[in-house]
Amino acid sequence: MNISIIGLGLIGGSIGLALRKTHRVIGFDQNPTHAKRAVERGLVEEHVTWPFLLDEADIVILGVPVGAIREMLPFVLDRVRPDAVVLETGSTKQGICEAVSTHPKRGQFVACHPIAGTEFSGPDAAQENLLLGKTCIIVEGQRSSDQAVRVAQDLWKQCGMVILPMEADAHDRSLAYVSHLSHALAFVLAQTVADLPDSDPLDRFAGSGLVSMVRLAKSSPDTWASIFLDNRSHVVAAIEDWSERLEQLKKSISDKNESAIKEFIQKSNTITKRTGAL
Amino acid sequence: MNISIIGLGLIGGSIGLALRKTHRVIGFDQNPTHAKRAVERGLVEEHVTWPFLLDEADIVILGVPVGAIREMLPFVLDRVRPDAVVLETGSTKQGICEAVSTHPKRGQFVACHPIAGTEFSGPDAAQENLLLGKTCIIVEGQRSSDQAVRVAQDLWKQCGMVILPMEADAHDRSLAYVSHLSHALAFVLAQTVADLPDSDPLDRFAGSGLVSMVRLAKSSPDTWASIFLDNRSHVVAAIEDWSERLEQLKKSISDKNESAIKEFIQKSNTITKRTGAL
Questions:
Q1: Is the peptide bond before B51 cis (omega within 30 degrees of 0)?
Q2: ipTM exceeding the 0.90 mark
Q3: How far is residue B168 from each of residues B67, B179, B233, measured CA to CA in Å?
Q4: Is A254 an interface residue toward B (CB < 8 Å)?
Q5: Which B residues, 206 through 245, put their C-beta within 8 Å of a C-beta on chain A?
Q6: How many angstroms separate the CA of residue A42 from the nearest CA in chain B?
Q7: Of A230, A221, A226, A231, nearest in space to A190 by CA
Q8: Are A178 and B258 in contact (CB < 8 Å)?
Q9: What pTM was estimated for this model as a whole?
Q10: Nearest CA of chain B to the CA of A144: how many Å?
Q11: Which one of A104, A209, B65, B96 is at 20 to 30 Å from A238 when CA atoms are compared?
């Protein structure tokens, strides 16, 4: 297959690394430094100028921020061959699906969310095994042609992923809680701590707890501003749900209500039961 | 030296493992299962009944929750030999220091906070190298005798720790931000996510981001209820500071203010500059 990847960062680049042995993979990145580095690292065989890399493609994969996916997707569908399949990898789905809901080539498009990532970004963050063993959500599969869904499933399986079908709104609500909220909290915590006076020797007394809580705060502003905006109603709802619970814990602390605090923490301890490996 | 450790969990047990080769280390834990397990694992040479393990000790180390330290400390100082040194390992300091500020044997006591830990608790969580390379804060050292401070410093250095002196209030305020707040956020996030409907297959779509954000939510209810209560004014202030910043991010998201969101995230990205290794 001829595979064309738009956006050669953490996700696009990792897909390239996972597929380059069995397919001809070319790509494009609008950042010239990233484009050069992607070829040097062998994430793609060749860097081909936009939009010409769409013309020969059997499969096109968009690995750019969700706002850019929404903007590019109608044009990409317009341009690709009638038997090509177009996939994207965004962390939100409803807005993207709406952007092409009436497109005459909607059947050639499959909305996908490979749930994998690190706090790093750009072509140097790409890893051959990033997707291995992770879940890829396919959204609104009934709006895609059977052939396009089959191609998408085969591709993610070749990357070692397990497929999970979902509807767009359910996906966006769930991800607001399990992923987008976590990132918002890490960004806020990092700032709160970074603004402590210089007299606090953070490097000396920050333990492993803080390290794991602020890891995500290193994530890309472009990627995450785009996700927060695109999924803003669910993200704001998750933040409000969260804030009410924090107020409850704060009140128990202010009230010196020891049994309420313990009960709160015991309830939190049960997260492992819901999440298996966590 | 004869060292007696009260509380044979994560911290007390790890100190025992680090010191048992060069000292005679005995201990006590009020939980009979933990006491038995501590001896089986060799965290201490012998389990000796409270309060008799105090009588022969050159050094007594309290590794129990901070509320219990406050209660036990005056009694421990009353009972120990006139040349013994008493240390504790609590995550808060002001309340503990106040509890013995007028004690006639105040000079024999050194308030210490070895900053090390994991999300696990009890004797099975103890690790020989848990303290290695970490920082131990010594608080209000000027209220301890020079000899007691020397003994404390030597002991923590034998565990591989670097010593940092601080005042009690500055310690409690800083730790509220860099440690206690992180734990509060993890507890709240774990609950928020755990309460999602069963139809959300969390084990399938929770990525590595959520894993690192809820790791601390497995921490001990006894330990953390005690810390939150003991340090409640600083913890509540840190939560309020935090909440204002979260409101600011939420407002930027609601207002679709892309440049404000990006600026917020860029500022968060700088956490690495303040914290070295983070």
A1: yes
A2: no
A3: 16, 15, 14
A4: yes
A5: 206-222, 224-225, 228-229, 232, 235-236, 238-243, 245
A6: 26
A7: A221
A8: no
A9: 0.88
A10: 22
A11: A209
